[in-house]
């Protein structure tokens, strides 16, 4: 099993009346300005039963080359600033940070 980087996974439930589109634009802007973020994906749950999702609605995943790159990201001034705004609109959150153990690599589709 090969390791393929370091992952930062965030699962959230936003507070009522949160302008989620603005948060998403802010996240996309943030990751586009910080080179240590190798990839960024997000999604909104629309398939799980409420009982299973426990109120969580959105997931965000960032990939870094290694843990040091992640630590550098967390201390970046843009991340520190955005985190304050992000935290203010969160009702519930789960955070997982881990070294990736690749069992099956994603299929790369040529354009």
Automatic annotation (TrEMBL):
Residues 6-98 form the Stress-response A/B barrel domain. It comes from the Eukaryota. InterPro entries: Dabb, Dimeric_a/b-barrel, HS1/DABB1-like. Pfam families: Dabb. PANTHER family: EXPRESSED PROTEIN, PTHR33178. Homodimer. This is Stress-response A/B barrel domain-containing protein.
